Amino acid sequence: MKHKCFRAVIVLSLTLALHVGIPEADIIEHDLLGLYGEYYPLQECRSVFVPYEGDTAQVQNFEVRIIGYGGGGLTECCCPRHNVSWLLDIASTIKWKGQSGYWHGAILLGYPRHDFDLSLPVDDPVLNPPDFLLPGDTLRVNLCMKPEEYWSCSILAWPLGTAYSVQLVIETKSSVPVRSTTWGAIKVLFKYD
C-alpha cells in the first residue's frame, strides 16, 4: 500500500509540473540613464522609475551595476595629527511604487579615488517588501553617492562620485506559460489577488 501511495504522489507531482509550468530563471536588464552623472559634492542622490512589462514573476535577486569614478576623501585630524580616509558610501534602494517596503544594498569606497566597475547586490529587505513582480508594477530605483559620515577635522580632499553607466539587473523565477484551461492558471488567480 505504501508503494502505491508513493507512486501516486510522484505521478501527481509530475502531472502538476507539466500542467502548471516549470520554473525558469530570467534576467531582465534596464539601463538607468537618469542615474548617470556626477554625484557628491554636487548632488547626493537620484531616482528613476522603471516600469515592469513582463509576466508575473518571483524576484530572486536585484543588482545595480555601476561604472564610474570616485572614492573617499581625506581629512587631517589633530591630537595627534594624522590623516583619515573619508569613505564614499554608494547605496541603492529599490521600491515598488505605492509600497512601504524596499530592498537596500551599499558599499564603501576609500581613498584614493579610482575608476570602478561595481556590481552592487541590492538584497537587504527593509519593512517586508514584495518579492513578486506583476505586469504594470513600477519600481523606483534610488542611487546615492555621499560621504559615509561628516568629519569635524580639516578637509584635504572631498569624497567624489561620478556614474558613467548604471544598469538594473533583475533575476526572476517564472513558470512556463500555461493554457487558460489548466489548474495552474486557476491557481494564479487566487495566489496574486
Summarize the structure in words.
It is a single chain. The protein contains 2 helices and 14 strands; from the N terminus they run αββββββββββββββα. It is mainly beta and 193 residues long. The chain has one domain (23-174): Sandwich (Jelly Rolls), CATH 2.60.120. The strands form 3 sheets. Strands 1, 2, 4, 9, 11 and 14 form a 6-stranded antiparallel beta sheet that branches. It has a 5-stranded antiparallel beta sheet with strand order 3-12-7-8-10, with no helix packed on it. Strand 7 (88-96) and strand 8 (102-109) form a beta hairpin. The longest helix has 19 residues, at 2-20.
Topology:
Layout: H1 2-20, E1 23-31, E2 37-38, E3 45-51, E4 57-71, E5 73-77, E6 82-86, E7 88-96, E8 102-109, E9 114-121, E10 124-126, E11 132-133, E12 138-147, E13 154-157, E14 160-175, H2 183-191
Antiparallel strand pairs: 1-14, 2-14, 3-12, 4-9, 4-11, 4-14, 5-6, 5-13, 7-8, 7-12, 8-10
List keywords for this structure.
single chain, 193 residues, mainly beta, Jelly Rolls, five-stranded antiparallel β-sheet, 14 strands, elongated
Residues in helices, as a percent range? 10-25%
> In sequence order, what are the helices and strands, one letter per element?
HEEEEEEEEEEEEEEH
The CATH topology is Jelly Rolls
Instruction: Write down the CATH class.
Output: Mainly Beta
- Give me the number of helical elements: 2
Distance between the termini: 39 Å
How much of the sequence lies in strands comes to: over 45%
**Mean pLDDT reading:** 77
Assembly state (oligomeric):
single chain
Number of strands: 14
Largest sheet: 6 strands, antiparallel
From the alpha-carbon coordinates, what is the Rg to the nearest angstrom?
23 Å
Q: How many structurally independent domains?
A: 1
The CATH architecture comes to Sandwich
- Overall structural class, as computed from helix and strand content, comes to mainly beta
Shape: elongated
Unreliable sequence segments: 8-22
